[in-house]
Specification:
Lipocalin, 23% helix, 10 helices, 8-stranded mixed beta sheet, 24 strands
Amino acid sequence: MTCPCKARSISSLSQGPVIEVRLQTHVSSYLSRPGDEIRAVVVTPCKKDGYVLIPRGSIAIGHVVQAHRVGYGLVRERASLKFEFNAWEHPDGTRHKLSADLVLIDNAREEVTNQGKVKGILAAGGAPGFILGLWREPDPSTLVRSAYGFAGVSRFLLMKAPFTPLGVAGVVALRFLVVRWPEPEIHFSPGTDMLLSLRATPETSVRQPETVPEPVPEPLVELANAQPIESMRPRSGSAADITNLLFVGSKEEVERAFEQAGWNLSEPLNRETGIRICRAISAQRGYPTAPMSLLRLEGASPDMMFQKSLNTFTKRHHIRLWKRPGEYEGKDIWAAAATHDTAIRPSGFGFTHETDPFIDRERFKVLQDLKFAGCVEQANLIDRPKLSGFSRPDTVTDGRMAVVRIRECNRPFEIAGSDYPLPVQRKGFYRRLARRFVLEGRQAVTRGNVYYWGYRVARLGISRFFPVSDHATGVASLRPVD
C-alpha cells in the first residue's frame, strides 16, 4: 500500500507526489499571521521504487503566507488563508528540504483554489437568502433588503401583512433560535487532515526499504471470500455499499481502535438528532456524530457505525460494521463497508449524501488512520474471485477486501496540542450582530438579483456542453489507493 510518488498533473500545484498530513498546530484566519509556523505529522508514508522516502510520523514544517479575516464584512465577505511547507523532519530528528503546496483540506466546507489558497464560505449564501425574492431594477428599496433578510421574512410578506416593530423583533428572535448564523472565519484545529502536493521528489538522506507484507494464511483468504458482497437498502431492497474490509478483534478492541484513530460513533436517527442535522446544515458547520442510514447485510442491521468529519455535514468518511458468524483464532470477525460522503443532493422530500464511487480510496483511508493510531497488528489485501469483472455505475473497485487484525493501540504519533480547545473569535453580541447585518446586506444587493442568477444559469448551461476540469475532483483522484 503506497503513496503514489509520481507526477500526476491536474493543476499547477499537482506536479509531484501527494502525501496526507495531520495538523499539529492551530491555523485560523482570525488569529494566524503571515510567518506563523505550521507543523503537521505525516499520516501516509510516501514510497517510491521499493523505498520509503518520507516515513509515517515525520513532521512537515511550513508557515502562513496570507491570512485575511472577514472582520465586520465591510472589506471582504470571505476569509482566506494560504500557507506552504518548505521542510520536513525525519523521526530521527534530521531535517530536509521540502517544497509542497496545499491541495485539499479533508472534509472541509472551505475550498482550496488552484493557487493553493483556502477560500472561506459565504456566510450569507445559504438557502435562507432566497426568501427575499430577486430584484430587477435597482431603487432605494434595494438598500433596505438586508433588513428584510435579517428579520427572516420576504418583502412581499411584509407588504401583504405588515408587522409591528414588536412583531418584527419576535420574528428576528425566532430566526436567531432556529437558523444559526454560520461562522465565516476559517478555523482548523490540530487533527485536521490535509493533502500536500510536492513540487519534486523529496530530498532525504535516509532511504528505508519498504516492508514486505507477510503471506496471507489460507483460512483468512477463505474467510474473506465467504463474506457477502453487497449491503442492501431496507426499504427498496436495492444494492447499496460494497463490503471492502474485514476486522478481526473484539467489539471493545474495534471501538477503541476507531476512537484512537479519530473516528466517532454515529448517533441513532430520531427527532432530536434530526433537528441537529438541520441546524448543522443551516449553520454550515459539522456534526461529528451525525446519524447514518441503516443498511442491511443479509438482513442484519449494522452493529457499529463510525464516521470522521471536520466542519461540515456535507462531507464525511464513514463505515458500517456487521458482526459475522464464527471466529478467527478465537477473535470475533466484522464485515464492513466504507465509503466517503462528498456532497448532498435532493432525494424525494428530503436529501441524501453523494458518495465517492472509487471506494478503494476509502478502504485505504481507514487502514492508514488505524495504522497511524498503532491499532493494526497485520493487514492484508485479499482478492475475491466473486468480484472479478464486477461492474456497477456508481461504484469502481478492484474487488479486494482488506483484512485487518486489531491489536491494543499504542498511539505512536501524538498530535501536539490536540487536547487544547480551538481558540475562537471573541466578539461581543452587538459586533457579531453588525457583521451579520453587513454580510446579509451585501448578499441581498450583489447576488439577490435576476442578473446574477441569469449569469449562473448560463454558466451552468455552458459547462454542460464545454466541461472544464474540476480542481476538487482532480485532487480527489490523487488520493492514495492501495
